[in-house]
Design goal:
The chain has one domain. It starts with a strand and ends with a helix. The protein has helices at 34-44, 63-68, 72-79, 88-92; strands at 5-6, 9-13, 83-86. The mean pLDDT is 90. Strands 1-2-3 form a three-stranded mixed sheet. Helices cover 31% and strands 11% of the residues.
Length: 96
């Protein structure tokens, strides 16, 4: 299990995983307000949300978060060419 910043790159999911918390319908059964708390914390800390499909493998930034809430470090990584897109299903060994 490695962090999303590794090998000199910030790893970001190429697309939202099948059960992304940013998809309609609360596919992960989050308690009301939890997603907003996660977003608020990540934005406040100039951080990101890790894709849950990558938690058991090499971690990557959630595509849903990246597309909606580019924090300053994510913007810098993108502008400087330090992003590496990955397939979320390939990181955990199982499709999610």
């Amino acid at each position: 299990m490695r962090p999303p910043f590794r090998d000199g790159k910030v790893h970001v999911c190429r697309e939202m995983c099948k059960t992304c918390v940013f998809r309609p319908g609360n596919l992960m059964d989050l308690v009301p307000g939890r997603l907003e708390q996660m977003i608020e914390g990540a934005v406040r800390n100039e951080s990101s949300i890790i894709c849950h499909a990558t938690l058991t493998g090499d971690r990557a930034v959630c595509r849903g978060f990246f597309d909606r809430h580019k924090t300053q470090p994510l913007q810098l990584a993108e502008r400087l060419g330090y992003l590496q897109e990955i397939n979320p299903e390939d990181q955990s060994g199982q499709a999610r």
